Amino acid sequence: MNEKEIQQLRQPDHEIDPIFINRWSPRSFLKKEVPEEVLMRVFEAARWAPSANNSQPWRFILARTQAERELFHSFIFERNLEWCKNAPVLAVLISDNQNRMDAFDSGTAWGFLSLQAIKEGLKTHAIGGFDKDKAREVLNIPEEYNVQVAIAIGYQGEKDALPEDFQARELPSNRRPLVETIFEGKYK
């Protein structure tokens, strides 16, 4: 889906940079390797996310080889595996739980990563449907880290490459109007 098609589906209430409108989470990925320098720019953007007391609690565990991706496949729920198995890069975002802002800060790093991915011609899709305990075990994640989310990263594929029941959902979703998100003074 190109930028013009996306912008027909998504209309902001106020003028903003198109990168925010163009970021969405497709499920169809090409089995095309992401060059090292492109991938590192995506993670470099995450590196510069703000964090409480500059603690930078986030860490990323990457899977780029077939063997590494198969390890990740072992803890991703089957329904998500149907589409994410083609992504050339999988990542798990973890955060140091000794920092009470770890989830907030690591979510910000994920946001920065996803926006840089758009600038690089990549797509990302955060995956909540996986077994966090098994991921901890398989990836040897220390107890002082919270397992936040898995992420598929790669070049967007065609929607007809997906199982039929996913194809109808392979388009950018809209957002609630801003007036339903902001409350003045107190919650109404």
From TrEMBL:
Which keywords describe this protein according to UniProt?
Oxidoreductase
Against InterPro entries, the record matches this protein to:
Nitroreductase (IPR029479), Nitroreductase-like (IPR000415)
List residues of the Nitroreductase domain: 22-78, 80-155
What CDD domains does this protein map onto?
A: TdsD-like (cd02138)
UniProt superkingdom: Bacteria
Q: Which PANTHER family does the UniProt record give?
A: NAD(P)H NITROREDUCTASE YDGI-RELATED (PTHR43673), NADH DEHYDROGENASE_NAD(P)H NITROREDUCTASE XCC3605-RELATED (PTHR43673:SF10)
Give the family this protein belongs to, as stated in its UniProt record. Belongs to the nitroreductase family.
Q: What is this protein called?
A: Nitroreductase family protein
